[in-house]
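hiii so um. not sure if this is the right channel but i have a protein structure encoded as tokens and i wanna go backwards to a sequence. like what aa goes where. can anyone help
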């Protein structure tokens, strides 16, 4: 790709950040609208979970396909298609006459979203070839992810109270239209040096595995974990996972590039991305319901209560990105995991009458967690990887995030779903299961941060990168049995 001027690189970064904002914000913006959607469309709690999870599940399922396809046929081309699909899905969401139509339109939205964020990340990785400059760009891009998640409820609350819940989807249309024009004019085309072949079987197995797992979690509250349907779905999940490993290891161009996981930092980044977004997805789901259903707040008031989270992300994420570029990811990851664990622990004290000041103080810890997690995870996922694997590596990191969000919402809804009908005390008691989940995930992030930033872990990253570089040059043959 031709070397771009600093101004042109900054413009490309801004366009990519715009795509990040609309796609990621639509994960969280819908949370404050759930009760309005429930009342307007007569939706059940499982339907509300699917309103969130239909979006994140499709994102998680197709991110790998989008990343590898963009590497093969052109990142700019896929990015433009994604913008068009996302805008169409947003328009359909705003016009949905029933909850089933809304869930379906959310899936269309997500199909477009799969072609945006991982592809945008690959565009950034190729636009900023110098490591320190790339780390700073990744820090800015990663901060947009956390900021979008946190500010979604605030913007959503304002829109819902002023114009109704449909407006949270309509607002995407003009933003996407502007991004489409800017992309066509200013984003350069790029491809991986070596094209990767399609993997439809691998794609199908990923959809079956994730879909079965999420469906089982959401429906377990109604059917029970011991029901034949739930047991069968979990069995399908396990079989699909085993089939993915067996099948993908035999392909020369697999959808799920398992050789990347030979890098301990990369594997840890995926696990931390999963855990972090699982925690944040669960937090947003139960907190917005608590603020509106238990505390009786409007959508805007509930969104404003999450302002401390957004402010800390604004303050901490860019600084975290710069710190990671200069000093590495260990300290930010440890701080983030510790803040999440402590935030979960103090949240065990929440009651229906807990003072608003105490609640906001608790939310500050979640803000510290989110403000320091995304830049080091994103940088860790791509550091040391050859540029030819940029799309696949970033797609896996994004898939980890979306899978985490999907399961976080599904688990949280299952934990607190039936308690909504029994009053505030019942709900806050049921929330304890979610807070214990956050404590465990925070501790896990701290442990992975320490493991993945040591000298041994860095050596595994170098060996994994060297393997891809040698295979791409044809210096070494593919492993036996690969097709």
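sure thing!! here u go:
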């Amino acid at each position: 790709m031709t070397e771009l001027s600093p101004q042109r690189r900054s413009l490309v970064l801004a366009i990519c950040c715009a795509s990040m904002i609309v796609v990621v914000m639509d994960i969280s913006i819908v949370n404050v609208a759930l009760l309005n959607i429930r009342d307007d469309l007569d939706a059940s709690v499982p339907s509300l979970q699917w309103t969130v999870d239909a979006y994140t599940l499709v994102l998680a399922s197709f991110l790998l396909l989008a990343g590898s396809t963009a590497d093969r046929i052109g990142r700019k081309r896929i990015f433009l298609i994604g913008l068009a699909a996302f805008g169409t899905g947003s328009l359909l969401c705003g016009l949905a006459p029933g909850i089933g139509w809304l869930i379906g339109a959310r899936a269309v939205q997500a199909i477009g979203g799969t072609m945006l964020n991982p592809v945008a990340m690959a565009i950034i990785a190729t636009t900023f070839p110098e490591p320190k400059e790339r780390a700073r760009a990744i820090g800015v891009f990663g901060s947009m992810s956390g900021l979008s998640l946190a500010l979604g409820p605030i913007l959503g609350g304002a829109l819902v109270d002023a114009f109704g819940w449909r407006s949270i989807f309509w607002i995407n249309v003009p933003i996407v239209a502007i991004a489409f024009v800017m992309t066509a004019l200013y984003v350069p085309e790029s491809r991986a040096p070596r094209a990767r072949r399609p993997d439809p079987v691998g794609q199908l197995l990923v959809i079956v595995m994730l879909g079965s797992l999420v469906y089982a979690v959401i429906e377990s509250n109604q059917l029970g974990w011991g029901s034949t349907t739930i047991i069968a779905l979990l069995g399908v999940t396990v079989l699909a996972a085993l089939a993915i490993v067996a099948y993908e290891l035999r392909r020369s161009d697999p959808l799920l590039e398992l050789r990347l996981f030979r890098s301990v930092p990369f594997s840890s980044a995926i696990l931390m991305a999963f855990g972090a977004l699982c925690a944040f997805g669960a937090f947003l789901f139960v907190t917005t319901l608590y603020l509106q259903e238990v505390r009786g707040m409007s959508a805007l008031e509930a969104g404003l209560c999450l302002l401390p989270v957004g402010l800390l992300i604004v303050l901490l994420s860019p600084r975290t990105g710069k710190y990671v570029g200069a000093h590495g990811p260990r300290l930010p990851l440890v701080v983030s995991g510790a803040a999440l664990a402590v935030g979960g622990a103090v949240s065990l004290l929440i009651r229906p009458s807990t003072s608003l000041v105490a609640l906001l103080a608790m939310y500050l810890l979640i803000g510290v967690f989110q403000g320091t997690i995304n830049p080091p995870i994103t940088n860790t996922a791509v550091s040391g990887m050859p540029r030819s694997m940029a799309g696949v590596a970033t797609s896996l990191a994004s898939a980890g995030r979306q899978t985490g969000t999907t399961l976080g919402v599904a688990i949280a809804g299952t934990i607190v779903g039936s308690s909504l009908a029994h009053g505030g005390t019942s709900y806050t008691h049921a929330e304890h299961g979610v807070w214990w989940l956050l404590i465990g995930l925070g501790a896990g992030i701290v442990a992975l941060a320490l493991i993945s930033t040591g000298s041994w872990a860095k050596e595994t990253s170098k060996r994994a990168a060297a393997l891809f570089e040698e295979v791409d040059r044809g210096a070494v043959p593919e492993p036996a049995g690969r097709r």
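oh and The chain has a mean pLDDT of 83.
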